[in-house]
Design goal:
The structure is a single chain. The longest helix is centred in the C-terminal third of the chain and has 26 residues, at 285-310. This protein has two domains: 6-43 and 287-388, Aspartate Aminotransferase, domain 1, CATH 3.90.1150.10; 61-283, Aspartate Aminotransferase, domain 2, CATH 3.40.640.10. It starts with 12 loop residues before the first helix and ends in a 5-residue tail after the last helix. By secondary structure, the chain is of the alpha/beta class. α4 crosses α9. The strands form three sheets. Strands 2-8-7-6-5-3-4 form a seven-stranded mixed beta sheet, sandwiched between helices. The protein has helices at 13-21, 46-58, 72-86, 101-112, 127-136, 153-159, 182-195, 235-238, 252-265, 271-283, 285-310, 334-344, 361-364, 376-388, and strands spanning 33-34, 95-98, 118-123, 139-144, 164-170, 198-202, 228-233, 246-249, 315-320, 323-327, 347-348, 350-351, 366-370. β5 (164-170), α7 (182-195) and β6 (198-202) form a beta-alpha-beta unit.
Length: 393
């Protein structure tokens, strides 16, 4: 008997990495530096926590089933702010709220595909995207990145087949941090439109994009709902990871199918989390700008400390949002390297093998550092440890 589709995919990478440090002591003079997970570990700001508590006490309907597609007030607020930010036309009826951005991706794929269909994923890819496709019996078609870890439009077109249902872009990218130029994003939109497939653009980290202007002009296209599916997460912006609140922006027709999926999975998004996200959007603009400034300062610290690693043979491949993506100089594969770094350097990072197809030569030479939870001084210490590391074998 063959296993289920779920059994065919790999174990959750972040959980696997946590097992590498389980039960291991780290001395006070050289504590573990954890750059494995791209999520803030600090709680939401006090004002937002107070709003959550107030809602829990004074809004009875926050404790019962809500609308499957989310609170109308939150959907409307997102539509209005996106119209301002992107300069396009978006309505409440084109916005759905989901239980995190991962569920938004799962819902989009479920609305697009049948078993045996194909989705084009640029590599290095976000591992949860690959896992969901595996579990749906949908083939992930790797699109190798080119110079600057940017996906190549001509190569993407060569991979489109009669089974292709969508191309997925993540920008700023996870795991590489790269911000895709607006012109490249538009080229992919036009390519998807030409072939009658969807363009899924995951903008989980849009709030930490270094560009002051809108990152793309897709919503300015009058027919964007026919091609574009945008995914978003409130988790990173407002530190609401435990509340699981995400969003999907697409056509009204597709949202009707997505509503079927959501109703059979969670019935409705977390009510307290939605109220928190709404209050955050309406009241925490200045605070979020400060969060962005801090992430950009840490990005600058990565860049300024890179000479330490370059002298030891490392190379910076991508940098942005929460991520630095590196090429290491050693002969051993990155999955072995990552585990050795725990014991020898007291550093927990994710290997490139987790972001590439099995057996990938590129994946074996790469390492992801997620720096959302390390400050400038810790980044300097991290780079000193990596530069001083030499494989045991």
């Amino acid at each position: 008997m063959t296993g289920s589709r779920t059994s065919q995919t790999f174990l959750p990478p972040v959980m696997e990495a946590r097992r590498w440090i389980a039960g291991k002591p780290f001395p006070k003079d050289k504590p573990l530096i954890n750059v494995s997970q791209a999520a803030p570990i600090e709680p939401p700001p006090k004002a937002l926590r107070e709003k959550i508590a107030e809602t829990a006490l004074s809004v009875p309907e926050a404790h019962i089933y809500g609308p499957v597609l989310g609170l109308p007030e939150l959907r409307s607020e997102l539509a209005q702010q996106w119209c301002q930010n992107y300069g396009g036309q978006i309505t409440l009826e084109q916005v759905g709220i989901t239980s995190g951005c991962n569920q938004a991706f799962a819902a989009a794929i479920s609305s697009l595909t049948n078993q045996g269909d194909e989705i084009i994923l640029p590599t290095p890819w976000y591992f949860n995207h690959k896992m969901w496709l595996d579990m749906q019996g949908v083939s992930a078609v790797p699109l190798p990145s080119g110079a600057g870890l940017l996906p190549d439009i001509a190569m993407a077109e060569s991979l489109i087949s009669e089974k292709t249902r969508a191309i997925v872009l993540v920008t700023p990218n996870n795991p590489a941090g790269v911000e895709y130029p607006a012109s490249l994003v538009m080229d992919f939109y036009l390519l998807a439109k030409k072939h009658g497939i969807a363009l899924i653009i995951d903008e989980t980290y849009r709030d930490f994009d270094s560009r002051s202007a809108a990152p793309h002009e897709l919503f300015k296209q009058s027919d964007w709902p026919q091609t574009l599916i945008q995914l978003y997460s409130f988790s990173k912006a407002y530190r609401l990871t435990g509340h699981r609140v995400g969003a999907i922006v697409t056509s009204e027709g597709r949202l009707q199918d997505i509503e079927k999926f959501l109703d059979t999975v969670t019935i409705c998004p977390n009510q307290l989390g939605q109220h928190a996200a709404l209050w955050g959007m309406q009241n925490l603009g200045k605070w979020l700008a400060g969060e962005r400034d801090e992430i950009l300062s840490r990005r600058a610290a990565i860049a300024s400390n890179m000479p330490i690693l370059e002298r030891a043979g490392w190379k910076l491949l991508g940098l942005g949002a929460y991520f630095a993506y590196l090429k290491h100089p050693f002969d051993l594969p990155s999955d072995q390297l990552a585990q050795e770094l725990v014991d020898e350097a007291h550093v927990l990072a994710l290997p490139g093998t987790m972001f590439h197809p099995e057996g990938s030569i590129d994946g074996a030479r790469q390492l992801r550092l997620a720096f959302a939870n390390v400050d400038g001084e810790q980044i300097k210490e991290l780079f000193n440890r990596l530069a001083a590391y030499h494989p045991k074998s």
